[in-house]
Amino acid sequence: MKKTTLLSTLFLFALLPFQQLKAQDVTRKNGYTLTFESNYAAFDPALKKRLVETFFIVYPKLAKEYNPETSKQVTFFVDTAYKGVAATSNGRVVFSPAYMSKHPQDVDVVTHEVMHIVQDYGESVGPGWLTEGIADYARYQFGVDNAGAKWTLPDVKPTQSYKNSYRITARFFAWMQAKVKPGIIKAVDKSLRDHTYTDDIWKTLTGKNLDELWAEYLKNPAIA
Ligand SMILES: [Zn+2]
């Protein structure tokens, strides 16, 4: 009897962390499904609500602008074991609860990350800085509260390069869109998805290669 009781107790304790891991709920809206999972019980419910709301605002817009065929099902996972800011693969975004709890205004981490789902480049034929630059450009275009997070495109410096990625590249793209060729980032994004991208695309679309465009950008970097 005693042995059975001990086993039952052990069994019960073994189940507890499992139940915590399985904390998830599903929201469906306008044909999109977001599954929200968390293994951090103390995650602020108001922040969770904002992350979910941000998804349903930005994801359909990103899909419409860049890739209507993008997955209709996305998972968010708040994972205490994850030590970065956020990362995305296979329709699943992992968030660091430590980062998000410390920066609750930075809800457009969602916008950058779900853009990676929309990009759907597979094994990309382009460089990594380009993928990240486009994701931050999309955040610049469609972010719901970049100002609240004090997230801006920083002024360019002569020591920088378009290969610096993220916001530095995003600002260069905003300049191209405004001053060189409207629709260019949309076209480049598409070429990455259908694997037709090569370095020549910039010259084909603008008459100049990336280095020439960057030199021109440094001379007159206004984006508005
Ligand atoms: Zn990214």
Describe the structure using short key phrases:
224 residues; Neutral Protease, domain 2; binds zinc ion; 2 domains; 9 helices; alpha/beta
What does this protein look like?
By secondary structure, the protein is an alpha/beta fold. It has nine helices and five strands, in the order αββαβββααααααα. The radius of gyration is 21 Å and the shape is globular. The chain starts with a helix and ends in a 5-residue tail after the last helix. The protein binds zinc ion. Zinc ion is lined by residues 112, 116, 132, 135.
Summarize the structure.
This protein is an alpha/beta fold and 224 residues long.
Over the alpha carbons, how many angstroms does the gyration radius reach?
21 Å
Helix content: 40-55%
What is the average per-residue confidence, as pLDDT, rounded to a whole number? 93
The SSE string, one letter per element, is HEEHEEEHHHHHHH
The end-to-end distance, rounded to whole angstroms, is: 78 Å
Oligomerization category of the chains in this entry:
single chain
Element layout with pairings:
Elements: H1 2-21, E1 24-29, E2 32-38, H2 45-66, E3 73-78, E4 86-89, E5 92-95, H3 97-102, H4 109-119, H5 128-142, H6 166-180, H7 184-193, H8 200-206, H9 210-219
Parallel strand pairs: 2-3, 3-5
Antiparallel strand pairs: 1-2, 4-5
Helix pairs in contact: 2-4, 4-5, 5-6
Residues 112, 116, 132, 135 line the site of zinc ion.
